[in-house]
Amino acid sequence: MCGIVGYMGSSGVASILLSGLKCLEYRGYDSAGIAYINDGKLKVTKASGKLENLEKLLTSDRSSLLAVSGIGHTRWATHGVPNDINAHPHFNEDQSIAIVHNGIIENYAFIKEELEGQGFKFNSDTDTEVIVHLLTREYNLEKSMLKAITNTVKQLSGSYALGIISSHQKDTIYAVNHHYSLTLGQGDNEFFLASDIIAVRQYTNKVLRLDQSEIAQITKTDVSLYDFSGRQVKRDFITVDSDPYLINKDGYKHFLLKEIHEQPTILRQTIGKYMAHPTANLDFNIQPEPLANSSKTVAGIHLTKNDIAGIENILILACGTAYHAGMIGKYYLEQLCNIPVNIEIASEVRGRTLLVNEKTLVIAVSQSGETADTIAALTEAKRKGAYTLGITNRSDSHLTRIASNLIITECGVEVSVAATKTYIAQVVSFLMFALYLAQERSSLSQEYINNLKLELHSLPALVETVLANENIIKESSIKYAKANDMVFIGRGINYPTALEGALKLKELSYIHASGYAAGELKHGPIAVLDSSVPVVTILMPGSVYDKTLSNAQEARARNAQMIAVACSNDEKAPKYFDTILAVPPVDELLSPVLAVIPLQLFSYFISDYLGKDVDQPRNLAKSVTVE
Ligand code: AGP
Hints:
Glutamine Phosphoribosylpyrophosphate, subunit 1, domain 1, Rossmann fold, 3 domains, 7-stranded antiparallel beta sheet
């Protein structure tokens, strides 16, 4: 979704802002623009479409190369179609103030009516434009940009982040964060601003993350922080030593393919972090990781044995792929810990009474840690007194400030919009957490726990075996690239795998695909089947194998094209399926991790074969920061 960058220093602003925007491309966008001060005047350049369009306009504009302060933006349309006018930055009539904005201003219609009544002229269809006119009105009264900003934020509702530049105060840019994410980077007589630490880390390892409801006044030599009442706040930049935020394709054709191939390493890191070796105790009390300075970041599980014994129910909140990981988490927690677990799509709990209390553990799962619906639902659960746990890949995210307990998956940045490596890291995190709770609540024998720990440690090598068959999977996949619809079915612990397989195919290839619980096929979906529809069955060994095979037969009897994800030693599968995407034999509990790998590759190869934008599929955003 939208991305903000800013720069205040002494070198050419255009190239620095563009390079920052390139780092944010992966979030998804449909237009881009920058504003900068040159010769005392504020200039704005923007273009719809990819960043190349903006880059072309800027190469013929020497003033942007000389300017030393500016703000930039990639826009993912919410209010108004993607075009040059709705693109950010937005500016006022005399072009003295320009802003870039992430988020949504919920009361914009009301403010717009009021401002129009006072003679302000609007050019765009965006909610953003009200902010620039409000700032203008307040500046005209106060003759101070800082006061204009503090007056303006008091009138806005919603969650948002802003970058502000003005010819009234040429040596300064401003950043505002209200329940969003903005990170500052400190260079040598220069400061960088970005919605994602990735765009800052390319220049400096001294970072400071803005807290909620905070304003930063940024000059070439200094940053001053203020709360929304205008009181100064003191906090220092911190030095980040590790480099999880430096990104490249490492020779792979796409980030997605690279990320699929990183999965064995990611499993080793994520499992190894909490359980150094198969016989080690699970230890979630990892020390805080100060990845970006904010007033609160925790890591680890801080629940006492008594807290854990007292948990009466669990609620999992997530969206998209993280929701599918949560469904597998529900299975683990119920089967291994005997605790009733509910799971909700986070956007579906808005406007409803959330039935949680002091005996509920609420687990929010989010790769980005910025998904607005997940954050909002978790915040509400916390307000109601529930224990909170966040599972995220971004230790510098919004989620890490809200959740009182954290499991950080160790995946590095996931650049491709379609989640792959973070999904399997979430699944194994759930399994390890369930084993931890089972151990603390004595719901499983130690022998059973020890066996599962051994199996867990063998997973990375099994994933390597699947990846080694990549070429066979490629050949099998592209045979189905011309399909218009596909159906994915699975049961029990692999019903979520079917949902995830269908989601990956939709996202990457734009082929319509639906995932169903295999037993549900005959209750309706079977009506769509005929010889033109490939049906992908997740046929893993274990308690539901026979029933899943029977359901697949129902599809076969309708002449569907039959594909199975099955174990390489499965003797029955070749009799019933045209294509087998093989994985090594595996314990049922761990099978979702293996079964999803060929499905990721299946979607990848079809997408690449069809010439789709693999890493940045149309209409999608990596961090969905609006509700
Ligand atoms: C995954 O492939 C998707 N792009 C999407 O469904 C994603 O999982 C969802 O938006 C949730 O994101 P989060 O994990 O960052 O909260």
